[in-house]
Amino acid sequence: MPTTLIQPEFKVEIDYDKCHKCGRCVQQCGWGVYSFNERPIPDDAKCRACHRCVTYCPARCITIRKNELAFRDNPHWNTGLRKAVWRQAESGGVMLTGMGNDKPYLNIFDHLVLDACQVTNPSIDPLREPMELRTYLGRKPDSVEVEPDGNGGYKLAEGAGVSNNIVLDAPIIFSPMSYGSVSLNVHKSLAMAAEHCGILMNTGEGGLHADLYPYADHVIVQVASGRFGVNPEYLNRGAAMEIKIGQGAKPGIGGHLPGEKIVSAVSETRMIPQGTDAISPAPHHDIYSIEDLRQLIYSLKEATGYKPVGVKIAAVHNVAAIASGIVRAGADYVYLDGFRGGTGAAPQIIRDHIGIPVEVAIAVVDQRLRDEGIRNQASIVAAGSIRSSADMAKAIALGADVVAIASAALMALGCHLCQGCHTGSCSWGITTQKPELTRRIDPEWGAERLTNLIHAWSHELQEILGALGVNAVESLRGSRERLRAIGLDEQTCNVLGVKPVGL
Amino acid sequence: MTYEPLLQRAPSTKLPTFPDREGVFGGERPSYTREAPFKIHGGCGLAGICDESGKMMSGETAILAMAVQRDRGNGLGGGYAGYGIYPEFPDHFCFHMMYHDVKAKEDAEAVFDRYFVVDLAEPMPTRPVKGISNAPLLWRYFLTPEPHQLEMTDMTAEDYVVHAVMRINSQVDGAYVASSGKNMGAFKGVGFPEEIGHYFILEEYEGHTWVGHNRFPTNTPGWWGGAHPFTLLDWSIVHNGEISSYGINSRYLEQFGYRCTLGTDTEVAAYLFDLMLRRHKLPLELACKALAPPLWSEIDRMPEEEREVMRSLRAVYGSAMLNGPFAIVLGFNGGMVALNDRIKLRPLVAARQGSVLMVASEESAIREVLDAPDRVWTPRAGEPVIARISGMDWPIHGDLRLPASEVSCAMSGVEDACDAVEVA
């Protein structure tokens, strides 16, 4: 019997006439595709089409192709499903994968278009006029209470104002990615970029490595069900704290970090033994209902002198009511993670079939909080997945205060979306702990590329605002009047609170 | 100068009777929602003048200011509000009414009869003017809440009046309250503003504050009620511009119970003023700063206390920021405030001559009205121009405590704007 019925997904073709026989492909590939016997010999079965070898081949003689084996057409039993059955028949296990849901669900962002000004109101030129992106993340009072300052002016009343908010220079932050799932150099790149851009990075559930302590003002420290790396010092090292209830890629289950990635420094930071799988419990075992969440929120606040606490949830069917409860429980922001959000490791069946699009989650949560008159009590952070400044603008117009990006950030560092994060062999040195791979990311280089990305999206958002005739991002936030839907059904339009084009 | 016809009538609780009259619109009363199912786009001209010493000036002044700005409108709406114009009835609420037909008038008067003591009811004095046609029946009433009814409702007099306005505007078919404040009135209609001013014989009124408006709607022909100013109690608001942030402004207001049913930027501005001044008790200067805030770069350079106030204002009222081109004049018993958008995308010129403060879309209006202004300047973006009449009380709106939905219902005349509320 063959060891597997599954044929390789890709074919690695080397033009040996051009090949220098330098062996760089052998050295670059983290998946062990290449062996060398006078010339590089690829093993197609191991290739994930991450293009590391292609990028680094000095002779440009490597081509990766899809292994287009013909199957008898059957849209119902598509190729992926057949392969999954064969694979599970071989292994008897849950199939793991990395990155976000890749199934061709309707993408709502791609069915929304933005407005622009013509004649009756002027568009604004962001090259020549101020165009403000500054955003306050956190709970805001219902109104601003002032009292006379004695000199004819006014000052804030005692305890009034927004001093507990975090100021962001752009409405965009980095999503949580734990040290362990990504390398320390990735964390450093994110932290440095966050500092350069005046935004935030997020530790994820893996604790905060001591090297990142200097960036504390730009770090959100996460508290997840595994409580990895959580101690009072950790909590106080963050500008804000975040309770992770769920993640868009795997709603209802806890984090997965394969033991291969728990190397010494990771084990120290996470406060768990080396080489053990770090599998967080599905629920927090001290949160079995909303009142328990409230207690945890206030425990964290008490431990840190009332720093902001956010709560991250996966976007699921009843997300509006859940978010409302979270806000009433005292959260300073609600982080909504849509079902296309990425992951370092998740069961494929969960990733691809659970949750709802973040576009819908933003719309229903924003509306619910407004209906209840508590929209000002918490910011909405939207993620999973924001692919461009256009997605960002649309998310903000639907009602998000801030968007969070992870997949795009990793792509800035070289990620090619090969979905092999869980293997710990990332050839780009991102989702790995192997020293020979992690050193491929120079934090200075990484920070520069991430900074470029944030600046580029910020400029693009400014262009969009200018076309819309507004000069501050808060005038776009929740302004669904500036969105129109093209090709969405009426029901979805109503849920989104967006009119169809032409109206 | 006193207004003679007004004094000649003996106060009476009986309503006069009128000859029957066919409805002038030849059908149903047009509604705001029909006029503007979507947001109205358009430009406009405006003017405001206030003598801070409380000295009276003739309505002719307001007409002059608007007449030279004729080109800013297209003849589809003009209007004025005058303050201090009814010194004979300083403590009466004055209802300026528009009726589609006699039936509407009877229905509205039934409301007045039951809930108010009407001390004077009379047809609005008008004169025929070329260019003005299709006027609705125009009446005015000087009234006070019926004491027994008022006591039963456990409301303040202002609440009670707003309730009545809401009820008439949304439930009495064919009747519309043009204004309902004390010692003030709105005069508006379809036409150029100087025509409207002459039609209402404004030169015979004397007021300490006048605001005027010239409308340039770009969609459908206006109806009389749709002209500016918008009013509620003694507030009147005139507006030139288009608020590009209308979408979020209206959603923000909805959170507080306001219902933005008209699709006009003016409505949004009026409710935001109501929210901030009346319900959040912000000082007028700060409310203006919240609506047209300074840039972050300016805020960062402010002295610490001011900086913290401004940061909080922007962070808390970000959704209330009126972004996009506008110039607004808000009139009230006690003065007026004029405000420009934060980067000055619509014109607004101001001038002072002694105790008189004047603002207008164009300097020509100022030069027409003031013979020797001490100073003429262009107010900076977002910098409110505030006129306060010495000796008059703040805050405005008296003791109004009603929830937002009823305020928006009263102002808009759209029933959806509130849950149907029974008076008494």
Q: What layout of secondary structure does this protein have?
A:
The complex is a heterodimer of chains A (503) and B (424).
Chain A: E1 10-14, H1 24-28, E2 34-36, E3 40-42, H2 52-56, E4 62-66, H3 79-91, E5 96-97, E6 112-114, E7 135-137, E8 146-148, E9 154-156, E10 166-168, E11 172-174, H4 184-197, E12 201-202, E13 219-223, H5 232-236, E14 240-244, E15 256-257, H6 264-270, E16 278-279, H7 290-304, E17 309-314, H8 319-328, E18 333-337, E19 346-347, H9 348-353, H10 358-371, E20 379-383, H11 389-398, E21 402-405, H12 407-412, H13 435-438, H14 443-468, E22 483-485, H15 490-496, E23 499-500
Parallel strand pairs in A: 11-21, 12-13, 13-14, 14-17, 17-18, 18-20, 20-21, 22-23
Antiparallel strand pairs in A: 1-4, 2-3, 5-19, 6-22, 7-10, 8-9, 15-16
Helix pairs in contact in A: 4-14, 8-10, 11-14
Chain B: H1 4-8, H2 32-35, E1 42-51, E2 57-58, H3 59-67, E3 78-83, E4 93-99, H4 102-115, E5 116-123, E6 137-145, H5 147-153, H6 157-171, E7 175-179, E8 184-189, H7 193-199, E9 206-207, E10 209-217, E11 230-232, E12 235-241, H8 246-255, H9 265-279, H10 284-291, H11 296-299, H12 304-316, E13 326-332, E14 335-340, E15 349-353, E16 356-360, H13 363-369, E17 375-377, E18 385-388, H14 404-412
Helix pairs in contact in B: 3-7, 3-13, 6-14, 8-9, 9-10
